[in-house]
UniProtKB/TrEMBL annotation:
InterPro entries recorded: FAD/NAD-bd_sf, HpyO/CreE_NAD-binding, L-asp_N-monooxygenase_NS-form
Source organism of this protein record: Streptomyces mooreae
Pfam families: NAD_binding_9 (PF13454)
Positions of the FAD-dependent urate hydroxylase HpyO/Asp monooxygenase CreE-like FAD/NAD(P)-binding domain: 8-189
Protein name: FAD/NAD(P)-binding protein
Length: 524
């Protein structure tokens, strides 16, 4: 009799769901059975959506059109087809959708419903292929190297066999312990950083998502400062203004996301992305090389990199940038398609850059790149322009400090020497992948403290590029310990979009299925 390997998936959101779906695809395309026990850990009441796509206001939209959203990156129309099949179900939840248009932007909560269905379907598929999938509604507080193979213990005292030579012990917040042969760390992004140390201050909203419950406490008479000018800040501001609140969006750079100008998800010149891969294959690459590649492609289509980034290089006021992009989306649209087409080459190009060039990019250009790579839907841009013209939204750059006042409220200081008073502050600074910013007592902080993983200088966790196995501090790969999602961005650069998460998940699933075959042979 052979024992069954145990896989622990830490995180039941988009990254964990993409991994399970990829495992099912990998196995169903072959004649193999997958005689494994899979435990998926997540403290939320729904597996699939995670925090990012939880039930929320319909005003919070995806920033990518339907044609570009899918858990399977080889099937970009999957989400759109699901919307067509689920029309009646979605009408019952009052979700407004034009699901016939590939360029439509669905509410984030609709994508959450899709992920929930994908998760359930993947679990069913895996069960039919020989796996046993168990969901554990608890957060993981500790992962440690198992000192002895004892199988699954804990509150139930039952579970799969597990306990190979490189096994891990998983401990949950409610005191259960599990032993797993491999770990898939798919916890998504870290919470927003409390840049100005406002935690605990009355009126400070530390995490805006889900928006509806987080922002319901804001009174229409409140003066509200939204920290950040990215997509999270835009979502927060639009929800607040629907409640009749006047809002100031402020950040250090003042950059707002570009306006999505084209529904296409693939560059119409396939040689462009191939050029990126060829450039990376040369070995040492400079930022100048990458910019020249992009500029040459743009010039073939009648514009240039300088023209496309002019509003960011010249630091146009936010409302002016949005009006300009809405009136003439041409250069921005070409550049968006360009940087999207480079997605398959991001990891290789990033790793080909010397560390000094990586640091220079992160310090000088990353914020503008993020605005171009993750533009907002045009409908949101039009709303922001109208709200700015009506005086209901203002944009500030150069915020240098925010402090809470003893009598209540907050004072923000700006680089031009001015100060402003606010009643509430919404922390919408967006994602971070800095392990040192992980909350005290969190799983990620504990993993780094005990050197189970190594922090990458550019953020996230050091991983082996080919397998996404976490690296030890000495640089050797940790057997059976994989990272999926934004925490691998230090190595792969841009890894927060659904397409990139799906690519990583497929790579890790392929490796996990192959490892299962090796395990089965060893156990015979």
């Amino acid at each position: 009799m052979t024992s069954r390997p145990v896989i622990a998936v830490i995180g039941g959101g988009a990254a964990g769901t993409a991994f399970l779906a990829a495992c099912a695809r990998e196995l169903s395309a072959d004649s193999r059975e997958f005689a494994a026990d899979i435990h998926v850990f997540d403290p939320t009441d729904r597996f699939g959506p995670g925090v990012a796509y939880a039930r929320d206001t319909h005003a919070a939209l995806l920033n990518r059109p339907l044609s570009a959203m899918s858990v399977d990156y080889n099937d970009p129309g999957q989400f759109r087809r699901w919307l067509n099949r689920s029309a009646e179900q979605l009408r019952a939840t009052a979700i407004p959708l034009d699901w016939k248009a590939a360029s439509a932007f669905a509410p984030r909560t609709a994508f959450g419903h899709y992920l929930e269905g994908v998760f359930a379907g993947a679990c069913d598929d895996l069960e039919h292929l020989g796996a046993r999938v168990t969901t554990v509604r608890s957060s993981v507080t500790e992962i440690a190297e198992a000192t002895e193979a004892t199988g699954v213990a804990g509150a139930t005292g039952t579970g799969g066999a597990g306990g190979g030579p490189d096994a891990y012990t998983i401990t949950t917040a409610d005191g259960m312990t599990f032993t797993a042969d491999s770990v898939i760390l798919a916890v998504g992004t870290l919470p927003p950083v409390d840049v100005f140390g406002l935690a605990g201050a009355p009126g400070f909203i530390a995490q805006p998502y889900p928006l509806a419950p987080s922002l319901a406490c804001v009174d229409p008479a409140d003066r509200v400062l939204v920290l950040g000018t990215g997509l999270t800040a835009v979502d927060s501001a639009l929800v607040l203004t629907e409640q009749g609140v006047r809002v100031t969006l402020a950040s250090r750079s003042g950059f707002v996301p570009d306006v999505r100008s084209s529904p296409v998800s693939r560059w119409d010149d396939p040689e462009h992305s191939f050029g990126g891969l060829e450039l990376a294959a040369r070995g040492a690459v400079t930022l100048r090389d990458i910019y020249a590649l992009i500029d040459s492609s743009l010039r073939e289509h009648g514009t240039s990199l300088r023209d496309a980034v002019r509003p960011y290089a010249e630091r146009w006021p936010a409302a002016e940038l949005l009006r300009s992009r809405l009136a003439d989306p041409g250069p921005a649209g070409l550049l968006q398609r360009c940087v999207t087409a480079l997605t398959p080459a991001y990891s290789a190009l990033w790793r080909a850059l010397p560390p000094g060039e990586q640091r220079a990019f992160l310090r000088r250009h990353h914020r503008a790149f993020a605005c171009l790579r993750n533009p907002m839907p045009p409908v949101n841009a039009r709303k922001l322009v109208a709200l700015a013209e009506a005086g209901d939204i203002s944009f500030r750059r150069g915020v240098t400090a925010v402090r809470s006042e003893p009598g209540g409220g907050f004072t923000a200081a700006y680089a031009d020497g001015s100060t402003e008073r606010y009643d509430r502050v919404v922390n919408a600074v967006g994602r971070t992948n800095d392990l040192t910013a992980a909350p005290e007592g969190s799983l990620l902080r504990d993993l780094a403290r005990r050197s189970l993983v190594a922090a990458h200088p550019a953020g996230g966790i050091q991983v082996e590029p080919e397998s996404n196995r976490a690296l030890r501090p000495d640089g050797t790969p940790r057997p059976g310990f994989h990272v999926v999602g934004d925490l691998a961005s230090g190595v792969h650069f841009h890894s927060s979009s659904m397409e990139y998460v799906a690519r990583q998940a497929a790579r890790v699933a392929r490796y996990s299925v192959d490892a299962h075959d090796r395990y089965a042979l060893q156990a015979v």
